[in-house]
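idk why but the lab printer keeps eating my pages so im just putting this in chat instead. protein + 2-phosphoglycolic acid:
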Amino acid sequence: MRKKIVAGNWKMNLSLTEGLELGAAIAGFVKNNPLDNLNGQPDVIMFTPSVYLVPVTEKVAGTPKLSTGAQNCHTELKGAYTGETSVKMIQSAGVINVLVGHSERRSYFGETNEVLAKKVEIALANGVTPMYCCGEVLDERNAGNHFDVVKEQIETGLFWLSEEEFAKTIIAYEPVWAIGTGVTASPEQAQEMHAYIRKLISEKYNPTVAENYTILYGGSCNAKNAAELFANKDVDGGLIGGASLQAEDFCKIIQSF
Ligand code: PGA
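predcted complex ->
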């Protein structure tokens, strides 16, 4: 069955105390409102800053269907890469998810589809689930190139995987023009791209893989618009930035299926 997910991307925000409070509030909500009882039965992931991964993971340990994730990892497992975090470290800290290719990593840190393919590979090889982000910038959409851009990102980043490996990944479609701007993709725009991505998966692998695959929407998704975005048949949840920093808003989004 296709998994529904609501994921929060805290980015470079919050103090440790605030992060622990937020994690505890979300875990408390999930314990009082078991996710299996909610419509859509979502899983919840919190992508925290790397320095908070251990304490937040410990704080929420044992909460069913709630897990943590890193926002990035290096392409190598260890070595002289000052300032970097390897997926082996992430895994050894009990963390089971990693974001790969967020648009901020692509634009500010020059991460290419080829580099991201290596991150996907190393994450899967170490039992960490990569959530692969893709999405076009505004000029690309205005030029009508958004489908081609996303296709290239997914083909290079993911489509070299075996069917079994690919099925362990998650895609988050995040139009760059919608991230942090308050301009959300319309439900129609989100559904159109998600259906397109699912078609690509079906053609590359097969209809069963495509049908069971989770594709999230991200970009100014919040407590007010989540329900109409998630109501689309190919939108399986969201990757939430700004609105994941307030427990109340984030918990409303969790209930938006
Ligand atoms: P936003 O960020 O919800 O603040 O637009 C989403 C993201 O960058 O993942």
